[in-house]
Write a structure and sequence with these properties.
Elements (H helix, E strand, L loop, with lengths): L5 H7 L21 H40 L5 H37 L14 H6 L7 H9 L4
Helix pairs in contact: 2-3
Length: 155
Amino acid sequence: MVKRDLTQNRKRRILNGFGRPVQPIASSERASTGVHEMERKKLELFQKKLLQKQQELMQAVARNEQDGRAADEEATQDIADKATNSYTKEFLFHQSNADRGQLQLVNDALARLREGSYGECTSCGEELNLKRLEAVPWAGLCINCQEKVEQGVVA
């Protein structure tokens, strides 16, 4: 497999995220071009899913921060209460950290959607499988590249 130079590829064409060049479509032409309209609808659906997930994660992060502060404010009486509060704070910190990481992935996917590179692997430039995007709309890597990252082969 020959790796493509991603910068040259992006300079040559603007992609709609599914590997085909985007052509602006006049409203009168939309009825005759069902393929482009369907792709736009899919992109709008992915954007809607991503925005919804972004809201959920932002609320979860805010809630975890608030709960962590509340655990600090509780008047602890004995060592068991202190240990419970410490565990609660640590748990909320890890939960919030995971939510922040996922929020960053969602924000990156929204940025790729705006740039027109949504649906492309950020590592090799290959088109992402539609089923993968439906399952994980914030995915930035194809399955092969994701496996390499998980195995530590690629950073």
